[in-house]
């Protein structure tokens, strides 16, 4: 998949492109909105990552120009400003999502993947149906999304509703590193930073129930980054 | 900076005073002119009365030859004092029986005379006409009765009005000069009065203009705008002066708060920054194993998280005013929102052995997200300061007969001492810095309660806290009922 990065800060450009390439994406980076529009006209991209605060053409101007030229590529806005009106404005102008700096790499990646997934049919989810039904199987873990029940090695897991939600979220994105912020946002709808480590504790509880004595750990902690659920033989 | 091109207050006042003076003096002048004129005419009338009486007497004395009358008229006409006087007596036919010399030239033709008035001479009013010499004259005619059976005579009377006219012209010029002179004098005096009158206003303006950031910084805007000398400001300006003193006071206060906030914020940033420096420089100090580098980087990330949270919180608090317009109000069941938050903290509370209970009823109109944020901060604080075995009760319901709703987060925790209570909601205030810092990975920003207060302020809600060391604390937010 091809991703176009329009960002004036050289270090950010470098880091993000490098990270994307390491994840297997083809990444092109430009420093100016006009260059970005021209590049998008030259070749088809699957996603355009657009910084808002740029000298010359800012993000608003760039996306307006893109849309005016009939380029429908999904856009992910990056910005240091997080005012609500800005978010609304971004979405109205045709952006798919919005990420506030500073952000963790894993968050960025998660958003990128999210937008791309929405554009094309999902491939990575095992037995996952878009309507939210189906069963996810990872190693000996079975999650029945329809019945909202989970089993490990055949034994049913006694989970609270929230714990199930958390498990399902992690499982659907098996292998992806999900930050505490992302989990707080997506599973608990907490869109603001909190002082507590409630997510850690919740993960801890889930772990206790999931990765019981002797069983292979499925939930892994990546210090400083977040958590991931995957089978590591 | 001026708005539009309105005239200066002083100029306006001066013009008004001058106009009033001009108007008043003009009216007085007109009145004087009129009075003088009437006075002169009245004199003529009195003279006429005398003359008529004399003529009637003369006629009565000699109704045949009219000798007396002739004598009378001649004498009167020759009298230097009566230079402007002319008279003729005839039988109504135009044939003169007696007349003053030069009457025909001094007087307009007899046809111009008004009809003779009867005996009562008070009714005689002068008419104006021009005589042969083009002078203005007053003319009138009256009946002179004779013995019964004989037709009355007609007495024609002329008075040269030119000298009078001349006099009136001069008089009017004098009045005009007086009016103009008076107006100019009043204008001059007015100018002095206005300048003096507006001087206090200028002084206040000067004081205001001298209120720079520097002044606010040093004095905190605490001193009042001083009045001139020992006297107080005049009534109209006293309110203005006191309003500005209040304004300066508030500005000074806000200024100091802002400074304090900036200082604190910069200070707070130093700690995590310091950690980052150390982590990186220490790691580079010697050759390390990949695991050690990894560990250093992971710690770095944690500090970055901490900084990010700080930045978010700082921005939230400092941009609260802008946020006011960005609030999205909705009416929602309070217990739904409370449950979501309690849910989030459930695992944590349970882990610590603290029981969470909810007792909520009613709807709340507020920005839902901000409400949840405020509640989260209160609950996480409560959990942090409540030991195992304790409980945290969250309650919500109407109060004051439905005028407000109250949210209470009460814990059986360690409580807060008397002294820190009033400062609790200040930014960065931490009661026990050592202990709260020991939180480690989830180190607190110290802004949790400041954010709660900011959110309350945005909603015009009131926060309060009561606490007893060893017993617990009780945080209350009073939400006004909207809509």
Description:
The complex is a heterodimer of chains A (233) and B (483). With 233 residues, chain A is of the alpha/beta class. In chain A, β1 (2-6), α1 (10-22) and β2 (26-30) form a beta-alpha-beta unit. Helix content of chain A is 39%, strand content 20%. The two termini of chain A are 29 Å apart. Chain B is of the alpha+beta class and 483 residues long. Helix content of chain B is 54%, strand content 17%. Chain B has helices at residues 9-61, 67-78, 103-106, 162-209, 213-219, 235-285, 290-318, 320-326, 334-352, 368-384, 433-437, 448-458, and strands at residues 85-90, 96-99, 127-130, 136-144, 153-160, 329-333, 355-360, 363-367, 391-399, 404-411, 462-468, 472-480. In chain B, β9 and β10 form a beta hairpin. In chain B, α1 (9-61) packs antiparallel against α4 (162-209) and α5 (213-219) packs across α6 (235-285). Chains A and B meet through α8 of A and α7, α9 and α10 of B.
Task: Describe this structure in a few short sentences.
The complex is a heterodimer of chains A (233) and B (483). By secondary structure, chain A is an alpha/beta fold. Chain A has helices at 10-22, 33-42, 59-68, 84-92, 105-119, 161-172, 180-188, 198-210, and strands at residues 2-6, 26-30, 47-51, 75-79, 97-100, 135-138, 141-144, 149-152, 155-156, 219-222, 226-229.
Q: If helices are DSSP runs of H or I spanning 4 or more residues, what is the number of helices of chain B?
A: 12
Instruction: Please describe the biggest sheet of chain A, giving its number of strands, its sense, and whether it closes into a barrel.
Output: 5 strands, parallel
User: Can you tell me the residue ranges of chain B where pLDDT is under 50 for at least 5 consecutive residues?
Assistant: 434-442
Number of helices of chain A: 8
Strand ordering within the main sheet of chain B = 2-1-5-4-3
The structure class of chain A reads alpha/beta
H/E element string of chain A?
Answer: EHEHEHEHEHEEEEHHHEE
Task: Describe the sheet with the most strands of chain B.
Answer: 5 strands, antiparallel
The overall strand count of chain B is 12
Mean of pLDDT of chain B: 81
Question: N-to-C terminal Cα separation of chain A, in Å?
Answer: 29 Å
Helix proportion of residues of chain A, in percent? 25-40%
Mass-distribution shape of chain B: rod-shaped
